[in-house]
Amino acid sequence: MYFVIKRSSNNQFYFVIKSENHEIVATSETYFFKESAEATINSIKREINSNSIVVDMTV
């Protein structure tokens, strides 16, 4: 599983959780600040798999 941070059409941030075969497992709500999305990702990682990678598509 890995996370992909993206920008929405209204320029807010959200992330998707993808499986190893690259299928989308879940999509988050939108966040005004990228740091909020990252904090949620880190919280999920602590509970499930701290070795999950994060791909930032916003840069």
Proportion of strand residues: 25-35%
Helix content: 10-25%
Query: So what's the CATH class?
Result: Alpha Beta
Shape: globular
| Structural class category | alpha+beta
Figure out the total of helices: 1
CATH topology name: Double Stranded RNA Binding Domain
Short description:
This protein is of the alpha+beta class and 59 residues long. It has one helix spanning 34-47, and strands at residues 2-7, 13-18, 24-27, 53-56.
Task: Tell me about this structure.
By secondary structure, the protein is an alpha+beta fold. It has a single domain, classed as YegP-like (Double Stranded RNA Binding Domain, 2-Layer Sandwich). The chain has one helix at 34-47, and strands at residues 2-7, 13-18, 24-27, 53-56. 24% of the residues lie in helices and 34% in strands. The mean pLDDT is 94.
Secondary structure: elements and pairs:
Layout: E1 2-7, E2 13-18, E3 24-27, H1 34-47, E4 53-56
Parallel strand pairs: 1-4
Antiparallel strand pairs: 1-2, 2-3
Features:
24% helix, 1 helix, 59 residues, Double Stranded RNA Binding Domain, 4 strands, alpha+beta, four-stranded mixed beta sheet
